[in-house]
């Protein structure tokens, strides 16, 4: 079950809350999503257990509350604070029984669904901002006073500015002392700065708190920016829809749409649910779904995705899914869930942070004690120990890694690429080979007649009429392409007297008392029908037509290459990626596509188990592999690959199995996904190396007797700001794609 975490401000504390919850009886697992301020807890979560969870959370970080996530709030795209401000909600909630407990803890922003006045909360925020601004002004006055006016007066200004700027830090420290929680960032920051005051380092004490607060502002900005990229997708959900009811169009909530309902979509409106166009003609802006900037022309019978905007004439459509099961809801849920899945590097940092702070604190104590005993300069070594306290909190490390992956997930979603989690991005950054299926992946999967040859006194129209009439009873893509071609070219088809399919070969029919066979060369060979010499044909699926055991011609059906297939393969090869195509199609068609795209290796006529065997061979030869497919038969290979990618047009099982889903069905999306994964992974490693290097440098300088609290401030808050800025670079990179 998903839960909202209120008032959580520290990523490191969030990690400790996650670990503490995992250890409780009745809890199977807990996964924190810090940027979204959510936690997924699985197990038998009773009311009593939820109370215990809240007590633990509040002890680790004062004021933190964990409440069941409200789907109604999510549907209306509100956060807890927004949905309660001055509004009376009648939505059903699952946590009314926690309302009284909420008030007992003294919190104003209850999300229990009742009407609450948040004027006091706004006043409180404004008051804190005023304190901070006045504190900065007093700090500037103190610095000027120290050098120009009376030193004692300067000390008073320093103390006043410290109390105003560090008001929340001091308040949080007091609460944590009462709860016995001493080793958290506010407590360590307070001890370090108070110690600096005692040692007479007034400007440094205030500067530490000031930069600490500025670091928090940067952190909140970066997290909000990352959260916005994710919630932008959820914001595409439509609240209202115009539905035909009893002969009239009425406005209803989108969650009331039922399958089969007729919807009216006006110009400028966003489609609320998946469906099929009933009548009219229009253009859709699909950029929010697949990142494609070119409007899509739609006609009667076309499939429509929720979340797209109607750019032209009003049209009607039939809903084929309820709003909660439509594409935009699936995308929103997939992107948000992805942010909760942690890559290996993130789990390593979480484990590292558990031992990092205790080690630094031990070093601080030893430095103060041993340095004082050996040199006799107690003040210097206590000051050195205080610098260690400033950099002892691992928040920069704990936040920067997940934020990098969160930014990557958000950047990918803008381009219509849905990663199932941070671990998918991490795995994609390590791949050495990309394997493509052919039909529906490199090719459009949309077959059409590309060549016609008639013989034995029959002309092309007669050949097509006979072939199309027989094939209209089959559901095979080749058969449907032939019948569709006939109808589009005004060829009238007739109903066979009898007909049937021959698996893997073709069809047979009795047409106006004549026996007709339409199929491949193997079928003709089995029926002992001689194929006369014919001109060389374009590559594709060849359908021979025989009437009363005599060939009257052939029809060739081909699958066209997608627009960006050649470009995608070329760019992957430039990136040092080995490219392969595994297909169940015949060797001739596979070879033709391989030549046009420039792909490195081609394997044809493969069954699903054979594709998986080939994938394993390629993995042994080259390393981690990504497989891109879209069919039901691709599911085993998608699951067996290090990274499975599925086109949005694919089967449901392929979409469920894949680690990444491409809403834009062009292969170039694979290149974009790889670039985002590489950038994200690079940023994560940059953050770790930079943070550890700077902190290690300050520790070494402190041990060597060269303490500097300003440098310690940079190693903590300064590094945090730089890592956050570095992490959100992925967003800018995605805009340039």
Short précis:
With 737 residues, the chain is α+β, with helices and mostly antiparallel strands. The protein is 51% helix and 18% strand.
Considering the chains and any ligands shown, give keywords for the structure.
single chain, six-stranded antiparallel β-sheet, 737 residues, 26 strands, Rossmann fold, alpha+beta, Calcium-transporting ATPase, cytoplasmic transduction domain A, 18% strand, Alpha-Beta Plaits
SSE blueprint:
Elements: E1 2-6, H1 11-22, E2 27-33, E3 38-43, H2 47-60, E4 65-68, H3 71-75, H4 80-84, H5 99-104, H6 119-148, H7 151-165, H8 167-178, H9 185-198, H10 202-234, E5 240-245, E6 248-253, E7 262-265, E8 275-279, E9 282-285, H11 287-290, E10 296-298, E11 303-304, E12 309-310, E13 315-319, H12 327-338, H13 344-375, H14 378-391, H15 395-414, E14 417-419, H16 422-428, E15 433-436, E16 443-454, H17 460-471, H18 477-488, E17 498-502, E18 506-511, E19 514-519, H19 521-526, E20 541-547, E21 550-561, H20 565-574, E22 578-582, H21 587-597, E23 601-603, H22 608-622, E24 625-629, H23 635-640, E25 643-647, H24 652-657, E26 660-662, H25 668-703, H26 709-727, H27 729-736
Parallel strand pairs: 15-22, 15-24, 22-23, 24-25, 25-26
Antiparallel strand pairs: 1-3, 1-4, 2-3, 5-6, 7-13, 8-11, 8-13, 9-10, 9-12, 14-26, 16-21, 17-18, 18-19, 19-20, 20-21
């Amino acid at each position: 079950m998903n839960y909202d975490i209120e008032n959580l401000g520290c990523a490191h504390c969030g990690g400790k809350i996650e670990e503490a919850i995992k250890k409780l009886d009745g809890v199977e697992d807990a996964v924190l999503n810090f940027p979204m301020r959510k936690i997924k807890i699985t197990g038998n979560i009773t009311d009593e257990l939820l109370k215990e969870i809240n007590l633990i959370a509040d002890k680790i970080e004062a004021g933190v509350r964990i409440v069941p996530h409200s789907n109604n709030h999510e549907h209306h795209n509100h956060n807890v604070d927004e949905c309660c401000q001055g509004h009376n909600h009648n939505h059903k909630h699952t946590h009314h029984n926690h309302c009284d407990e909420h008030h007992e803890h003294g919190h104003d922003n209850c999300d229990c669904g009742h009407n609450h006045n948040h004027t006091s909360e706004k006043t409180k925020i404004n008051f804190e901002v005023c304190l901070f601004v006045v504190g900065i002004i007093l700090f500037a006055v103190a610095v000027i006073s120290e050098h120009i006016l009376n030193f004692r007066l300067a000390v008073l200004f320093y103390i006043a500015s410290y109390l105003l700027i560090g008001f929340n830090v001091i308040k949080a420290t007091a609460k944590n002392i009462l709860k016995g929680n001493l080793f958290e960032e506010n407590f360590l920051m307070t001890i370090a700065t108070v110690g600096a005051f005692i040692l007479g380092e007034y400007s440094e004490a205030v500067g530490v708190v000031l930069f600490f607060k500025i670091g928090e502002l940067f952190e909140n900005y970066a997290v909000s920016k990352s959260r916005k990229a994710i919630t932008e997708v959820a914001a595409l959900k439509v609240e209202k829809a115009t539905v035909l009811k009893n002969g009239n169009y009425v406005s209803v909530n989108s969650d009331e749409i039922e399958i089969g309902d007729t919807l009216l979509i006006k110009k400028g409106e966003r489609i609320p649910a998946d469906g099929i166009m009933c009548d009219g003609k229009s253009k859709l802006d699909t950029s929010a779904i697949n990142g494609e900037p070119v409007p899509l022309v739609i006609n009667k019978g076309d499939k429509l995705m929720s979340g797209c905007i109607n750019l032209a004439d009003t049209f009607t459509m039939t809903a084929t899914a309820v709003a909660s099961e439509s594409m935009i809801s699936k995308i929103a849920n997939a992107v948000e869930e992805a942010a909760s899945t942690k890559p290996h590097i993130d789990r390593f940092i979480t484990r590292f942070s558990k031992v990092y702070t205790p080690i630094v604190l031990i070093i601080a104590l030893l430095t103060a004690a041993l340095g004082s005993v050996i040199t006799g300069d107690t003040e210097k070594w206590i000051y050195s120990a205080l610098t260690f306290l400033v950099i002892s909190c691992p928040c920069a490390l704990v936040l920067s890694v997940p934020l990098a992956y969160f930014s990557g997930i958000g950047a990918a979603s803008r381009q219509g690429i849905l990663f199932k989690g941070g671990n998918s991005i991490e795995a994609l950054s390590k791949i050495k080979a990309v394997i493509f299926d052919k039909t529906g992946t490199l090719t459009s999967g949309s077959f059409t007649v590309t060549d016609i040859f008639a013989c034995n006194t029959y002309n092309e129209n007669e050949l097509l009429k006979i072939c199309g009439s027989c094939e209209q009873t089959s559901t095979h893509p080749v058969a449907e392409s032939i019948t569709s071609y006939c109808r589009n070219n005004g060829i009238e088809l007739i109903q066979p007297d009898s007909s049937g399919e021959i698996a893997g070969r073709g069809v047979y029919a009795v047409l106006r008392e004549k026996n007709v066979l339409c199929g491949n060369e193997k079928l003709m060979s089995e029926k002992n029908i001689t194929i006369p010499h014919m001109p060389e044909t374009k590559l594709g699926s060849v359908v021979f037509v025989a009437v009363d055991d005599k060939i009257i011609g052939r029809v060739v059906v081909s699958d066209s290459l997608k627009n960006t297939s050649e470009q995608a393969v070329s760019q992957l090869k430039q990136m040092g990626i080995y490219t392969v195509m595994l297909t169940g199609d015949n060797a001739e068609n596979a070879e033709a596509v391989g030549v046009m795209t420039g792909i490195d290796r081609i394997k044809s006529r493969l069954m699903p188990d054979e594709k998986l065997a080939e994938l394993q061979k390629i993995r042994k030869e080259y390393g981690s592999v990504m497989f891109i497919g879209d069919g039901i038969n691709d599911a085993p290979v998608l699951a067996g690959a290090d990274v499975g990618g599925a086109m949005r047009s694919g089967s449901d099982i392929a979409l469920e199995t894949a680690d990444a889903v491409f809403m834009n069905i062009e292969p170039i999306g694979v290149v974009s996904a790889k670039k985002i994964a590489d950038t994200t992974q690079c940023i994560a490693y940059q953050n770790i190396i930079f943070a550890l290097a700077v902190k290690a440098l300050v520790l070494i300088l402190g041990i060597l007797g060269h303490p500097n609290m300003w440098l310690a401030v940079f190693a903590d808050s300064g590094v945090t700001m730089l890592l956050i800025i570095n992490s959100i670079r992925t967003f800018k990179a995605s805009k340039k794609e």
